[in-house]
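Now for my pick.
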Amino acid sequence: RDDSFYFSIVIFLVENTLFKIPSHVLSDHSDVFQAMFSLPTGESIAEGLTDDNPVALKGITSFDFKQLLKVLYSRAVLPPWTSTIPNQVSGQLPMTLEEWTPVLRLSDQWNMTAVHQFAIEKMAVMSMDPVDRLALALEFDIKPWMMPALNALAQRPEPMARRDVDKLGLDVVLQIAEVRESF
């Protein structure tokens, strides 16, 4: 088997959907998947080789996984000469905040540093509610997003609301309210 041109395929079950992809698409971007795919299989048929025995990804939606795959298969992440990009996926990056947020989450969860940074760059230029931007900044430690979001919240005319507490936590909202009071 050639090291470069013998692709291993893995089948994932996400919710009720099967995804069959070359394992290198994930392992090239994630040491988590690289470690998973390098584990010895023993004498039994390894998980992920057949539709009857897929790798089950629990707690992840098929929509979220598909958004990540769009980025991984995109020519923005894979080299342009990669031949494993299906035509229906090639060049179709996520477009909305709802599509990019799972990419941010999954790339963080699976230590996909380059993909995570790519998602941050794409999302940085998107119009986003300051509460949502701050919540993501706090969750994923995106420092460049923090001060602009905090300033926008401190200066917005609407008072802090229950929704803000639900997204940011009581301590953060109280700190923002304290700054607002000082204005």
